[in-house]
Amino acid sequence: MAEKHIVVQGAQCMCKFGSAPDKLKVKTHTKEYANDKDGSDKPIATTKDIGKTFEKNMFGSCSKMNNNPCNAVVTKWSGFYEDSILANGGQMLLEDSKATCPSGATDCIQIVQHGQKTEPSKQNFNNADKDVQSQLNPMSESLAEPADNSEGLEVSVKA
Q1: Residue 40 in contact with residue 151, Cβ under 8 Å?
Q2: What is the pLDDT of residues 91-102, one digit of tens each?
Protein backbone atom coordinates (compact mmCIF):
# COMPACT_ATOMS: atom_id res chain seq x y z
CA MET A 1 0.00 0.00 0.00
CA ALA A 2 1.32 3.44 -0.91
CA GLU A 3 1.85 6.07 1.75
CA LYS A 4 -0.82 8.75 1.99
CA HIS A 5 -0.63 12.19 3.55
CA ILE A 6 -2.69 13.07 6.59
CA VAL A 7 -5.07 15.97 5.97
CA VAL A 8 -4.58 19.09 8.09
CA GLN A 9 -6.27 22.45 8.47
CA GLY A 10 -5.90 24.48 5.29
CA ALA A 11 -6.36 21.49 2.98
CA GLN A 12 -7.85 22.58 -0.32
CA CYS A 13 -11.09 20.82 -1.19
CA MET A 14 -13.33 20.87 -4.25
CA CYS A 15 -16.84 19.66 -4.96
CA LYS A 16 -17.39 18.00 -8.31
CA PHE A 17 -20.54 20.13 -8.70
CA GLY A 18 -18.90 23.40 -7.61
CA SER A 19 -16.93 26.00 -9.53
CA ALA A 20 -14.28 27.02 -6.95
CA PRO A 21 -12.21 25.35 -4.18
CA ASP A 22 -12.46 26.08 -0.46
CA LYS A 23 -10.12 25.41 2.48
CA LEU A 24 -10.89 22.98 5.28
CA LYS A 25 -11.05 24.33 8.83
CA VAL A 26 -10.62 21.99 11.78
CA LYS A 27 -13.05 23.11 14.47
CA THR A 28 -13.38 19.92 16.52
CA HIS A 29 -10.12 19.88 18.50
CA THR A 30 -6.89 21.68 19.37
CA LYS A 31 -4.80 18.73 20.55
CA GLU A 32 -3.22 16.80 17.65
CA TYR A 33 -1.12 18.53 14.99
CA ALA A 34 0.88 17.41 11.96
CA ASN A 35 3.52 19.07 9.79
CA ASP A 36 3.83 22.03 12.12
CA LYS A 37 7.14 22.47 13.89
CA ASP A 38 5.57 24.75 16.54
CA GLY A 39 2.48 22.54 17.04
CA SER A 40 -0.09 25.31 16.74
CA ASP A 41 -1.16 25.90 13.12
CA LYS A 42 -2.01 22.58 11.48
CA PRO A 43 -4.53 20.51 13.49
CA ILE A 44 -5.26 17.09 11.96
CA ALA A 45 -8.64 16.84 10.20
CA THR A 46 -10.89 14.01 11.39
CA THR A 47 -14.21 12.37 10.62
CA LYS A 48 -15.73 14.59 13.34
CA ASP A 49 -15.16 17.66 11.13
CA ILE A 50 -18.66 17.75 9.69
CA GLY A 51 -21.20 20.50 9.11
CA LYS A 52 -19.89 23.90 7.99
CA THR A 53 -16.21 23.08 8.18
CA PHE A 54 -14.76 25.23 5.39
CA GLU A 55 -13.43 28.81 5.41
CA LYS A 56 -16.12 30.20 3.08
CA ASN A 57 -18.51 27.24 3.30
CA MET A 58 -19.06 27.35 -0.44
CA PHE A 59 -17.57 25.96 -3.62
CA GLY A 60 -18.69 28.79 -5.91
CA SER A 61 -21.83 28.03 -7.89
CA CYS A 62 -23.41 24.58 -7.62
CA SER A 63 -24.45 22.85 -10.85
CA LYS A 64 -26.82 20.63 -8.80
CA MET A 65 -28.69 23.76 -7.66
CA ASN A 66 -29.02 25.43 -11.11
CA ASN A 67 -25.71 27.29 -10.62
CA ASN A 68 -26.95 29.07 -7.50
CA PRO A 69 -24.36 29.74 -4.78
CA CYS A 70 -23.17 26.57 -3.08
CA ASN A 71 -23.89 26.00 0.60
CA ALA A 72 -21.19 23.47 1.56
CA VAL A 73 -22.16 21.17 4.42
CA VAL A 74 -20.37 17.90 5.15
CA THR A 75 -22.60 15.12 6.46
CA LYS A 76 -19.98 12.34 6.52
CA TRP A 77 -16.47 11.38 5.42
CA SER A 78 -15.25 8.20 3.70
CA GLY A 79 -11.78 6.84 3.00
CA PHE A 80 -10.31 7.81 6.37
CA TYR A 81 -7.53 6.06 8.31
CA GLU A 82 -9.41 3.45 10.31
CA ASP A 83 -6.57 2.47 12.67
CA SER A 84 -6.57 5.79 14.52
CA ILE A 85 -8.80 7.50 17.02
CA LEU A 86 -7.83 11.00 18.09
CA ALA A 87 -8.79 12.90 21.23
CA ASN A 88 -12.05 14.15 19.68
CA GLY A 89 -13.13 10.56 18.92
CA GLY A 90 -12.63 11.01 15.18
CA GLN A 91 -10.42 9.18 12.74
CA MET A 92 -7.75 10.91 10.64
CA LEU A 93 -8.64 12.01 7.13
CA LEU A 94 -6.26 11.05 4.32
CA GLU A 95 -5.49 12.82 1.06
CA ASP A 96 -7.91 10.52 -0.79
CA SER A 97 -10.76 10.90 1.73
CA LYS A 98 -14.06 12.18 0.34
CA ALA A 99 -17.03 13.97 1.89
CA THR A 100 -20.75 13.81 1.27
CA CYS A 101 -22.87 16.96 0.90
CA PRO A 102 -26.69 16.75 1.03
CA SER A 103 -26.96 19.12 -1.98
CA GLY A 104 -24.48 17.16 -4.08
CA ALA A 105 -24.05 13.42 -3.79
CA THR A 106 -22.16 10.75 -1.89
CA ASP A 107 -18.41 11.48 -1.94
CA CYS A 108 -18.83 14.62 -4.10
CA ILE A 109 -16.22 16.64 -2.14
CA GLN A 110 -12.61 15.60 -2.62
CA ILE A 111 -9.33 16.79 -1.19
CA VAL A 112 -7.24 18.50 -3.87
CA GLN A 113 -4.24 19.32 -1.64
CA HIS A 114 -3.75 17.81 1.85
CA GLY A 115 -2.63 21.08 3.49
CA GLN A 116 0.82 20.01 4.62
CA LYS A 117 3.75 22.20 3.60
CA THR A 118 7.46 21.71 3.93
CA GLU A 119 8.69 23.68 6.90
CA PRO A 120 12.46 23.25 7.21
CA SER A 121 14.03 23.53 10.62
CA LYS A 122 17.58 23.83 11.84
CA GLN A 123 17.60 20.05 12.38
CA ASN A 124 16.85 19.48 8.66
CA PHE A 125 19.81 21.69 7.82
CA ASN A 126 22.08 19.81 10.24
CA ASN A 127 20.98 16.45 8.79
CA ALA A 128 21.64 17.48 5.16
CA ASP A 129 24.32 15.49 3.36
CA LYS A 130 27.05 18.05 2.70
CA ASP A 131 28.39 16.18 -0.37
CA VAL A 132 24.96 16.08 -1.99
CA GLN A 133 24.34 19.73 -1.17
CA SER A 134 27.68 20.78 -2.69
CA GLN A 135 26.73 18.93 -5.90
CA LEU A 136 23.28 20.55 -6.00
CA ASN A 137 24.77 23.97 -5.31
CA PRO A 138 28.32 24.02 -6.70
CA MET A 139 28.64 27.73 -5.85
CA SER A 140 29.12 26.92 -2.20
CA GLU A 141 32.10 24.98 -0.92
CA SER A 142 30.25 23.82 2.17
CA LEU A 143 27.06 24.40 4.01
CA ALA A 144 27.15 27.34 6.36
CA GLU A 145 25.20 27.55 9.59
CA PRO A 146 21.77 29.10 8.96
CA ALA A 147 20.71 32.24 10.73
CA ASP A 148 18.40 31.39 13.62
CA ASN A 149 15.13 32.82 12.30
CA SER A 150 11.63 31.68 11.51
CA GLU A 151 11.84 32.58 7.80
CA GLY A 152 13.49 29.26 6.85
CA LEU A 153 17.03 28.48 5.79
CA GLU A 154 19.72 30.89 4.78
CA VAL A 155 22.83 29.58 3.07
CA SER A 156 26.00 31.63 2.76
CA VAL A 157 28.23 31.44 -0.28
CA LYS A 158 31.98 31.79 0.16
CA ALA A 159 33.50 34.21 -2.32
Answers
A1: no
A2: 999 999 999 999
